[in-house]
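Hi F.,

I've been meaning to write this up properly since the lab meeting, where we talked about keeping a consistent format for the predictions we share between groups. The idea is simple: the sequence comes first, exactly as it goes in, then the structure tokens exactly as they come out, then a line or two of notes. No screenshots and no reformatting. I'm using this chain as the first example so we have something concrete to point to.
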Amino acid sequence: MKTDQARRIYGYHAHVYFAADSLEQARNLCERAATLFHLRMGRMHERPVGPHPDWSCQLSFTPALFAEIIPWLALNRNGLVVFVHPVTGNQLLDHRDFAIWMGAVRQLDLSVLSSTDDRNEAAMEFKDGD
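Output, unedited:
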């Protein structure tokens, strides 16, 4: 398989999926990650948002933290599903082709994602290195 050598990874999103009965578990996991690592924790969405089929919380982090955060999430997710994707500027490719799943793979609604490259937006999200 040929790789896209020109595509740059500006950062990563890890989406922690949860339901009403695992809300506090997910909140604790995300807050702990935000305390331990230099990352941004998003809101605890108690409804599906964007392409995500379940309630979720987004963790945003730089490529430099990938090797620390991903193993930590794998060992600490305790049954929660975690969906990880790079941020390259192409939402469709990032969510469909470059994704990593921990736990059950869930069906995303890819119809809401742009297939247009917007590397400026991706670069702006991670411009300060966090």
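Notes:
The CA atoms of residues 102 and 128 lie 28 Å apart.
The two ends are 31 Å apart (CA to CA).

If this format works for you, I'll send the rest the same way.

G.
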